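batch job 7 of whatever, protein = Oxidoreductase
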Amino acid sequence: MSTSQSSEAKDRPARLTVGVVGAGRVGPALAASLRLAGHRPVAVSGVSDASRRRAADLLPDVPLVPPADVLRRAELVLLTVPDDALPGLVEGLAETGAVRPGQLIVHTSGRYGAKVLDPALRAGALPLALHPAMTFTGTAVDVQRLAGCPFGVTAPEELRLAAEALVIEMGGEPEWIAESARPLYHAALALGANHLVTLVAQAMELLRTAGVQAPDRMLGPLLGAALDNALRSGDAALTGPVARGDAGTVAEHVAQLREHAPQAVAGYLAMARATADRALANGMLKPELAEDLLGVLADGTERPENPENGEDR
């Protein structure tokens, strides 16, 4: 065996039995990807009918058992439960003696680092925080999407190589996140991904109200280009009436939203203010145009259009 092969074998985890506690959208997909890498799923726990169906679809022939039994059967345990449930679950499993020395305990929460697994650590387990930065559907397509998916990785330094190796085996790309930075890291992802879904859904509803028959097809090219430009260029990709300082157009937007979708007004104003602040800070929004615009955004009332603002889109 060559030196490089010897190093790879040392860093690569041995083939492990895998258990899943919480058969939501994430756990079965990760276990299925680990199975493709040669590991062996042996147990899964799930409460709801939907969880049980997901487990049956993605992990056929893997028995459904209580959480404590999952830990008894598995060398690598994935805790894939909602963030708020994680601390109590870890404490409960540790207190009942379900955690074994040398067992790999992995959670997939973006909010928490490895410290939330301290009760398991005190019981002799090896704690890893591996958060896939992806939205999951709970179907087989998730396993394919894990290819190239970034994972936020947090673990004790001595387990860093093992944590990163597991991510690579699932097809992901490890990104080291410090324990203290996990909440900010997760807030950034939620701000971008979760709020994006809300914005897109609202935009499609408004287009339907305006008579557009296929709002998804209308928005697809526009939003795809906007996302690509934003990822490439940041604030330089800003465009539209707020960045141009078109106070009259923005006032008309607010008026239309108040009439047809009042539930969307607060979100529009908040995002427009944030956009105006960034456009003003980077010099895209001219200061002389900002006063009227910020006035519209402050109270949502109509302002007269500026006839001198004839800038192209």
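notes: The chain has a mean pLDDT of 91.
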